[in-house]
């Protein structure tokens, strides 16, 4: 299987394109936080696997690149929060993608079922002081854009991307965000999870040649998020744009997991098990 490529004009914001060394995990810490001194957040790297691209957000006023993230709502599951934040800040509907991630969580006790080698556990976790008395804990997940059959009927790809889907020109004036829609958007509904029996190769085949995942406008929930632009960027370029931050390694680990899963499925097919 060959992943298709998409035309994208790369920026020249950095002359140093050598890969940065991956960050290392911090030493374990012992700390205690009452509920009113703790904020839990979730971020996500959303891949369009067929074109080897990942969703990046761009702050149109402050001029920096980032992965979508935000606070988990009360009573919301962290993985679902990552999907929702990814949609609100980028406009791309997504779902967590099970990958062969190394983690330390136990498997559910199900003797009758063979354990899956894939999981949707966070690939990175950050502890960030939010104030003198409040701790912020941030979980980073990996997701995929939804297949055509799960996209809402009101969204469809456009032949000519609007301004918010075109790469910004660093020499030009900051692009203006799209105005908020006049009509109230329906409430966000989480997508169904990735089917446990669906191979990633079969999932890619669900898209017609040249398929472009639709992007919804006006999904931000406040004035700050209205300033965000979003783009599907080739993985290598995304890592360069995020260079110097943990987000670059979130993208790297996510794409490594995608390639590892594709390799594992290929080996199963050659052995007659797929």
Automatic annotation (TrEMBL):
Compositional bias per record (Pro residues), positions renumbered to this chain: 164-180, 187-196
Source superkingdom: Eukaryota
Residue ranges of the region described as Disordered: 1-28, 150-219
InterPro entries for this protein: NUDIX_hydrolase-like_dom_sf, NUDIX_hydrolase_CS, NUDIX_hydrolase_dom
Keywords for the protein's UniProt record, in alphabetical order: Hydrolase
Keyword Hydrolase among UniProt keywords: yes
Domain Nudix hydrolase: 37-183
Polar residues compositional bias, start-end: 1-11
Keyword Cell membrane: no
Protein name (database record): Nudix hydrolase domain-containing protein
